[in-house]
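Q: My labmate handed me this sequence with no annotations at all. I'd like to see what the chain might look like in three dimensions before we decide whether it's worth expressing. Could you predict it?
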Amino acid sequence: MIHIWLRQSEQMMNGLIPLYDEIKQCDICAAQLPLGPRPIVRGSEQAKILIIGQAPGTKVHASGIPWDDASGKRLRQWMGLTDKAFYDESLVAIMPMGFCYPGKGRSGDLPPRPECAPKWHEPMLAALPNVQLTLLIGQYAQKYYLKESFSSLTDTVKHWEDYLPRYFSLPHPSPRNQIWLKQNPWFEQNAIPELQRRITACLPACDTRRGDNQTV
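A: Here is what I predict for the chain of 216 residues:
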């Protein structure tokens, strides 16, 4: 089953639908996908924030909902957004480096398939004219979009201010990165407050602040 995550109520007002229809038909790397194609990409042309991560995991592949896992919960905490705001296509668009689950490697998931970004990112970006801030999550997105990225993810994230106002470099919010967060306390002390400030500035006057017991 191929799935583009988009609420039915928003389809008639979303100019990206023709592009999404093309993405649904993509089979450029189908033979290399152990669970088959199921592209997870979303957003409307009104979106102000763009998230470029790695690729869906097995849980997201199964649910069809982007960032529907522990990593997504932490990402929403970092961004300071309620689940409702995060999943509002008019506010946030999601375009990973690889649209489909790439398979399991020796330690964690395989890297995003290399075919997606060259084929689909440019037309997606052209269809998202109102994006004001792009979050580059993880080394694959950062190496692809940052011409002057550093050799290590830590150094690239540490220099997050260098890429503003267009990009904000972030580590992956996976629970596996808990040790990294403990070793780099400056990230949550300095980078996260600025990230939340910039996100608040980008979004319209609406209730985006996180509260307890948020649900999708």
